[in-house]
Amino acid sequence: MCYLPAVGFVSGLVLGSFANVCIWRIPRGSSIVKPSSLCPKCLTPIKWYHNIPVISYIMLRGSCAECSRGISLRYPLVELLTALITAGWFLRFESLETALIFTVFGLALVIISGVDIDYRVIPPQVSYPLMAFGIASSYFNEFISSGPRLIYSVAGFLSGILAILILRFAGRAVFKKEAMGLGDLKLMAAVGSFTGPAGVFWTLFIGSFAGSLAGIGMQISGKIKKRDYIPFGPFLAAGAVLYVLFTDFFHSFIR
Ligand SMILES: [Zn+2]
Question: Which domain-ending residue is among 48, 80, 112?
Answer without folding.
Answer: 80
